[in-house]
Amino acid sequence: MAVYRFLLTPRWLGFLALALVAATVMVFLGNWQLDRYRGRTAINERIDAGERMTPVPLRDALAAPSGGAGTTGPAPAEEKVWTRVTVTGRYDPTNTVLVRGRTVDSRVGFEVVTPLVLTDGSAVLVDRGWIPPAPGGATAQPQVPPTPTGDVTVVGRVHETESRPGAVDRRDGRLETRRIAVGRLARELPYPVYGAYVLLDEQTPAADPTFRAVPVGHTNNWQNFGYIVQWWLFAAMTLFAYGWAARREARRAAGLDTPPGDRAAEPEPSASA
What we know:
Mean pLDDT: 87
Shape: elongated
Number of helices: 3
Strand content: 15-25%
Radius of gyration: 32 Å
Number of strands: 9
Structural class: alpha/beta
Helix content: 25-40%
Low-confidence stretches: none
């Protein structure tokens, strides 16, 4: 294998180091996408399981808040997100929150979030559903259907607080925001609040038909799967390219890949007599 001694030269050792580093980075990126794929797949499985499961009491999924007014309880454990729960309390319509800029079936409107106050004085935020804006534009405050009075039993799924909390304003007597950030909203409320909100599936008495159910979108885990294949394939191609270049160099050194000579430079054969 003396023909491959060139691989020990600084030039080819540099090529090898570069190929190994590039392939290692690509494998690492593929493993990172694999972790994201597994995480998103687990989320989708919890969403599907939540749709099928029998509702459990709220406190089986969420720890009750223990602080004073304006504070929040602990966030749910990862495996408790999307758990289907049931809870009974009384809606507080004076602190209804309009969440603007929300899209359902390609229409922009509002989600209506109302605190459900429990017998111990704490509250859980309930996303009661989506309603269209008033005539005049997507930001025109809607006419919110009347809130049920008396005891209300809610069945819904635990939804973790949304990230990137924005400002909370009070417009025309109602709280308004862009994100359902439980901690930020709790500061505007006169009672302690559970550390996640409930996405309503059904309630007793029945919800007003004006409300549209907020769809739960599955995460796009197959996109991550595609990235896994892409990065690992690139890593294999990098190593293959190094091997192919080395073999070609070895064949050239052995004279096996010598290009044909320039036949135009060869002497013309003499004409026959």
